[in-house]
């Protein structure tokens, strides 16, 4: 079987697909990954074959176009979002984000269509915001299945996005196409997943946060409880922005070892001279290397960080700022495996809640239950067999 994966050039999205890429290759299938040229090195480092599009798309310019001519957007909240949330900020945020993904699909459509014609895959697998994939699949008569990124926040947009994609669909000679694909590969622990009506193919979340080597200090036992701090893969300009300095300061008086892992873009925002004695900063350390030694994790509520921590039974303190982060953090809190703190919380509140997280056993116990739930899901190799049967059918 020949499989074409389609992904945006964001590691936080592509990394969810990598374990299935590995499983496909190990099962003897041909695998190719389509994305923009600047992302090809990341794909190759993951052990996959990159198929670059003809050019990189300037997403900043796309967003300017969307903001200059925003589409009509529903006044009534979609399923899974309260009307109060929709009226506050969620409507405006989604009115920017989803049309931008649609504009990106328009920009990439000719390239992905050309790649698909040349490769003639038996199956297309795509991350949820690569709207170009199900459209090209429909145009070529090739089944396209979506691989969610944990909590399925895109499900809320299933009835909102098709009208925005209609001009592209007409250009490709197809009608309205379901952005959810013919099936959904779901790597979220079932108890944390949002209610949805999809043709679901379950798979185990296998943590992969990029390539990297194990530093020697991680092979030594920590003399104190270790608390990780992360802020995602790229510099944050959302909400209150980059809150790592405040988090480190809040933890500085606790009897813990603080390990801050940052992207190269964010590293400059945390000067070395401002670090307390019980903290160290590492750049671009894959979280799946750090997490097994952690007693707690503090982060912005990114789903990749959340599921990586849960894979090792690590409780979490999260500071969600955007609608997707709020939706993703709710199941974690409901399960008792974490604590949510408002981004505007003062340092004393953050310190108190972090201390509670590492000292109250119930948080670790709940995180352990979710870890076992993750481990009970079908391994990616089993998912490959189900996809083989899906294509045959």
Automatic annotation (TrEMBL):
Signal peptide: none
PANTHER family membership: STEROL 3-BETA-GLUCOSYLTRANSFERASE, STEROL 3-BETA-GLUCOSYLTRANSFERASE UGT80A2
Erythromycin biosynthesis protein CIII-like N-terminal domain residues: 22-232
Domain annotation Erythromycin biosynthesis protein CIII-like C-terminal: ranges: 247-389
Protein name stated in the entry: Nucleotide disphospho-sugar-binding domain-containing protein
Pfam families in UniProt: EryCIII-like_C, EryCIII-like_N
Keyword terms of this UniProt record: Glycosyltransferase, Transferase
Similarity-based family: Belongs to the glycosyltransferase 28 family.
């Amino acid at each position: 079987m020949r499989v074409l994966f389609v992904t945006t050039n964001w590691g936080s999205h592509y990394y969810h697909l990598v374990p299935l890429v590995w499983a496909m290759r190990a099962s003897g299938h041909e695998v190719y990954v389509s994305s923009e040229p600047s992302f090809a090195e990341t794909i190759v480092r993951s052990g996959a074959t990159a198929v670059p599009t003809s050019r990189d798309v300037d997403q900043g310019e796309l967003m300017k176009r969307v903001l200059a001519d925003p589409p009509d957007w529903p006044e009534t909240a979609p399923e899974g979002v309260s009307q109060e949330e929709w009226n506050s900020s969620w409507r405006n945020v989604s009115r920017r984000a989803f049309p931008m993904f649609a504009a990106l699909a328009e920009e990439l459509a000719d390239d992905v269509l050309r790649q698909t014609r040349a490769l003639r895959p038996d199956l297309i697998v795509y991350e949820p915001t690569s709207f170009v994939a199900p459209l090209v699949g429909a145009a070529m008569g090739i089944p396209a299945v979506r691989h969610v990124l944990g909590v399925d926040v895109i499900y809320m947009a299933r009835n909102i996005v098709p009208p925005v994609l209609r001009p592209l669909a007409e250009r490709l000679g197809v009608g309205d196409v379901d952005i959810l694909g013919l099936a959904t590969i779901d790597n979220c622990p079932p108890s944390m997943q949002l209610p949805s009506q999809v043709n679901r193919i379950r798979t185990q979340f296998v943590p992969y946060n990029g390539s990297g080597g194990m530093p020697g200090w991680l092979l030594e036992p920590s003399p104190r409880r270790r608390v990780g701090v992360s802020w995602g893969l790229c510099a944050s300009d959302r909400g209150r922005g980059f809150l790592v300095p405040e988090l480190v300061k809040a933890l500085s008086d606790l009897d813990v070892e603080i390990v801050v892992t940052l992207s190269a873009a964010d590293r400059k925002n945390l000067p070395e001279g401002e670090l307390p004695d019980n903290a160290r900063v590492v750049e671009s350390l894959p979280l799946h290397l750090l997490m097994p030694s952690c007693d707690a994790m503090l982060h912005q509520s990114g789903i990749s960080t959340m599921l990586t921590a849960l894979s090792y039974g690590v409780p979490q303190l999260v500071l969600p700022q955007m609608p997707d982060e709020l939706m993703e953090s709710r199941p974690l809190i409901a399960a008792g495996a974490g604590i949510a703190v408002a981004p505007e919380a003062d340092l004393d509140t953050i310190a108190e809640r972090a201390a509670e997280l590492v000292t109250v056993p119930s948080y670790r116990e709940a995180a352990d239950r979710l870890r076992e739930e993750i481990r009970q899901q079908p391994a990616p190799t089993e998912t490959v067999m189900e996809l083989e049967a899906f294509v045959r059918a």
